[in-house]
Specification:
Helices cover about 10% and strands about 35% of the residues. By secondary structure, it is mainly beta. An 8-stranded antiparallel β-barrel has the order 4-7-8-10-11-12-13-14. The radius of gyration is 35 Å and the shape is globular.
């Protein structure tokens, strides 16, 4: 009998190898999160050595080809403000001058009168383009102050900034990715008093995960060029409130058992040195602007 040759012999060898379990080719399609966060487009080929080789067929970094989600929200920030001032340029009679040292000292004292607690509400809207990049033209944050400190006294206020551009975001590892924080910066933030001041800049960041929030905001006095800067740092309130908001509702049930330490036996023998009468009434209310120019 003549031995058969040709293409059939290699297939016979391959069939024997497969039957013996010496070679296996397996294609496994994995869903998201498998093998480092795939999207279902990866193939894993198991070689005879038993080593898995991941082949990325697409899906982008992190295995997610979906753009981040647009998001908007509002957070209350309980913060502390610190003011300072420095010299700046200004124009007078066609000449460019610098703030005098005396004027800087006065401006610094003025800025520091707002040192203390301040409460802001940050309203933000973050928009992404179809390619997943941040739309900085459409992404804004606006701050509204409800309380500030002036000369050591807390005062209510309705001060509100212009919308400020959001310049960058921090994203999670989810799919789609979610916003965990953002940074903002601009040079048009103070509303009103255009004849007295000009905006310098405002910049800062808010971490929506840790709650940390901070920014610096500056404006310049037009009459002498002094640049006043307010540095604000604080924390997002989990309740929307900052500090005690209602009086103590509890009842004091304690009893004073201490005896008086002494008895007053003195006698007032002095005559009144004068007399007078007077009366008057007055009412007042209002809100302040933080910070006043």
């Amino acid at each position: 009998m003549r031995q058969q040759t040709g293409a059939s012999k290699p297939w016979r060898v391959l069939g024997s190898a497969l039957a013996a379990g010496l070679l296996a080719v397996t294609v496994i399609h994995c869903g998201p999160g498998v093998l480092g966060g795939g999207t279902g487009n990866e193939s894993t080929r198991a070689a005879a050595s038993g080593t898995a080789v991941a082949v990325d067929d697409g899906g982008g970094e992190g295995g997610c080809n979906r753009p981040p989600e647009n998001t908007s929200g509002s957070v209350t920030i309980c913060a502390t403000s610190r003011g300072s001032a420095k010299a700046g340029p200004y124009e007078r009679n066609g000449r460019t001058l610098m703030t005098s040292p005396a004027a800087v000292r006065n401006a610094d004292q003025y800025a520091k009168q707002y040192d203390g607690d301040v409460v802001f509400v940050a309203d933000y809207s973050i928009v992404f383009k179809a390619d997943g990049s941040l739309d900085t033209a459409a992404s804004k944050v606006t701050f509204t102050a409800s309380k500030f400190t002036a000369s050591g006294t807390e005062q209510p206020t309705t001060f509100k900034t212009h919308p400020i551009p959001i310049t960058s975001v921090t994203l999670s590892n989810d799919c789609p990715k979610k916003v965990e924080g953002f940074s903002f910066a601009g040079d048009d933030w103070y509303v009103g008093y255009e004849n007295k001041l000009k905006d310098e800049k405002i910049s800062g960041s808010i971490n929506l995960v840790s709650g940390a929030a901070s920014f610096e905001a500056s404006y310049a006095w037009r009459h002498n060029g002094a640049i006043l800067t307010y540095s604000v740092s604080g924390q997002i309130s989990q309740t929307g409130n900052c500090g005690p908001q209602t009086p103590d509702s509890g009842t004091d049930t304690s009893t004073d058992t201490g005896a008086d330490a002494g008895t007053d036996t003195s006698t007032d023998t002095g005559a009144d040195s004068g007399s007078g009468t007077g009366s008057g009434t007055g009412t007042g209310s209002g809100t302040g602007t933080y910070p006043m120019p």
